[in-house]
From TrEMBL:
It comes from Streptacidiphilus alkalitolerans. This is YegP family protein. It comes from the Bacteria. Residues 10-56 form the DUF1508 domain. Pfam families: DUF1508 (PF07411).
Amino acid sequence: MSAHFEVYEDKAHQWRFRLKAANGETVAVGESYPTKAGAEKGCDAVKRAAAEADIKQAA
């Protein structure tokens, strides 16, 4: 299995996504969105941002 996003409806009937690693572990969780399309756009935004993200040490 490869890394992938899961889009799902939560108990409050909001849409969320989580990023799963190849081993099945959840490595990131998104905020809630009122629509499934919004959660899917959130996945795309994470893909774009992560491709250019640097690693910085917290202060």
